[in-house]
Amino acid sequence: DVKVTQSSRYLVKRTGEKVFLECVQDMDHENMFWYRQDPGLGLRLIYFSYDVKMKEKGDIPEGYSVSREKKERFSLILESASTNQTSMYLCASLGTANEQFFGPGTRLTVL
Amino acid sequence: EDQVTQSPEALRLQEGESSSLNCSYTVSGLRGLFWYRQDPGKGPEFLFTLYSAGEEKEKERLKATLTKKESFLHITAPKPEDSATYLCAVRDSGTYKYIFGTGTRLKVLA
Predict the structure, then answer these.
(1) Which residues are CB-contacts of A80 (< 8 A; sequence separation ≥ 6)?
(2) Does A7 touch chain B (CB under 8 A)?
(3) Is A58 in Cβ contact with B87 (below 8 Å)?
(4) Please, what's the b/e burial string for B60-94 (b: 16 or more CB within 10 A of its CB; e: otherwise)?
(5) Which residues contact B34 (CB under 8 A, 6 or more apart)?
(6) What is the pLDDT of residues B11-47, one digit of tens each?
(7) Which of A38, A97, A108, B83 is 20 to 30 A from B14, comparing alpha carbons?
């Protein structure tokens, strides 16, 4: 089975802190995604990566950056956390049949 | 603009009471319609992929169907463990972007 893991299930940070969210997949998938999920808004794409060191902006990239130094690892960085970035963050990798495999999510609270 | 709309937003069923969830979509070129199940506090779990109108997929009590403008997730004789949020997503051809609906929250009462 595909396994996608995320570094933390719950995270509490203060405004202005730099935040790192890490995601690791074990199926050698090329494409990986970062979403945030908010009530009533569904999943919104922040960034995706189609290869090592390759990335493209999604619909809401402002305030975020990403890093993909190794194929299995895709990191989301909040350069200076703000309260409006409080959300559930979901990482996914793309299978061979175009299906996305999601991690368990990180619930981030910014105070 | 690509768009996915799911209805109803929430649905309460008695155990054994069959029903259907709807996902209507607009996309310039469909490269897959996807159904996911999401339990509270967890990531979505992949259920089905449909590619062309007329296609059907089944898994236990769930059956997904696809037309040119919408998809249905039929739940036959549901059980309390089927309670979850069901998400629909489409992928537009020529892009890696997936457009998600806001989901249907299903509650099955014993």
Answers:
(1) A16, A17, A18, A63
(2) no
(3) no
(4) eebbbbbeeebbbbebeebeeebbbbbbbbbbbee
(5) A98, A99, A100, B46, B47, B48, B49, B50, B88, B89, B90, B91, B98
(6) 999 999 999 999 999 988 888 999 999 999 999 999 9
(7) A38
